Amino acid sequence: MRSKNTYEKIYDVVREIPQGRVATYGQVAALAGNPRWARVVGYALHVNPDPEGIPCYRVVNREGRLSDAFAFGGVNRQKLLLEAEGVEVEGNCVKLDKYQWKKFVF
DNA sequence: GTTGTGACACATT
DNA sequence: AAATGTGCCACAA
What we know:
This protein has helices spanning 6-15, 25-32, 38-47, 75-85, 96-99, and strands spanning 23-24, 59-60, 89-90, 93-94. The chain starts with 5 loop residues before the first helix and ends in a 7-residue tail after the last helix. It is mostly helical. It has one domain (6-99): Winged helix-like DNA-binding domain superfamily/Winged helix DNA-binding domain (Arc Repressor Mutant, subunit A). 41% of the residues lie in helices and 8% in strands. The longest helix has 11 residues, at 75-85. The protein contains five helices and four strands, in the order αβααβαββα. The strands form two sheets. Strands 1-2 form a two-stranded parallel sheet. The chain has a two-stranded antiparallel sheet with strand order 3-4. The structure holds a DNA duplex.
């Protein structure tokens, strides 16, 4: 049994992001197995082989802000999608204090 | 096989 | 406090 490729792990973690929540690249990388894959995560989402199964719009950088190169169909599109999920987006920023995906939330 | 690039994060200045 | 530089890993040429 061969281990999943790095990308598959990343995609698997992104798919695990619940609706109405956002995760940072570092968070996804850490959950994928290595906190240093932050850049790789960005690249993995860049190729985004399955935009329908991999909601890359739920992945934001450490600032809770969307990348300038995001615009996979219009940054405005991203805002609409997140708001549709229940996440408030200001400009291109989301309140990580409220919407950052956490395994333990009270 | 080596070099350069990249949708990031962290440390230091 | 903000800005800059460095480190990390994977992929393309």
